[in-house]
Amino acid sequence: MYVIELRFTDDPRRLDARPAHRDRLAALHATGRLLLAGPLADDSGALLVFRDDPDDELAADPYYRTPGVEVSSVREWRPVVGDQYG
């Protein structure tokens, strides 16, 4: 599994790009590739959990290059408990 951490700024272009990005996330979730995604409670960023390496998705979705969105980390994660691990 992989975890992507995003940081947000106040640039309003991020909000303009968000609906298309969320549609893309819903499609990825429907395929089982994306397990979890959502903003942090204070809206300073977001976390996304992918079943496999998300490099191609980072390249394909322009949201990750939109002003106001910064990919702060992409890390492999090895959970040991939970419904989705394995």
UniProtKB/TrEMBL annotation:
Residue span(s) of domain YCII-related: 2-78
InterPro entries registered for this protein in UniProt: Dimeric_a/b-barrel, YCII
Record-stated family: Belongs to the YciI family.
The protein's name in its UniProt record: YCII-related domain-containing protein
